[in-house]
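Aim 2 progress update. The chain analyzed this quarter is reproduced below.
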Amino acid sequence: MLNKKETNLISHYHKIVAEILRPYHIDLCLIGGWAIKYYSNPPATLDFDFLCSEKLFDIVRDRFEFSRIYPLLKYYGFDLKITEEENLVRLGFPVLWLKKNNVRVDLFGADTGFRKSVLDRAVTIPDTDIRVATVIDMLTFKTISNRVKDRKHFNLLRKQYRLTQSQLAGIEDNANNEITERG
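Predicted structure tokens:
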């Protein structure tokens, strides 16, 4: 559960990203550690993960369009030493990694059916304009990554939200479909 200070911190980075992407009408929602923190109480991370409409990566791939957002990224203090090619191939799917004062802001592309549906189902954090992936979708992401800390977060949320066998089976199906679509 987020306190006011944490909500303000998320809001700060969300507003920057939203401002940079506003001319392109790119939808985004919070995922990752801060989304888990919204639903539960694990330790917060230092990076912010946003899932963005796939359209973001058309902009990054188009040198002219990327040159238009580059000054905004610099204006907001992002370190842009990572090359465009590095951003597009890391982790095997589109991601734009930005860094500001030792804080990473990761923009992931919604380039699969599951990821697109996450944007459709995202909910708004009360009293903000920040959208966050649903608990079920966050659990699907945690199932896919299968890291030790993600398994801990999965078990924490599973117990806290008292998920049914049907919900757990749906999470497993979504994870398998995402993995299959990724190839």
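Strands lie at 28-31, 48-53, 95-100, 103-110, 123-124, 131-132. The chain has nine helices and six strands. These observations will guide the mutagenesis experiments scheduled for the next reporting period.
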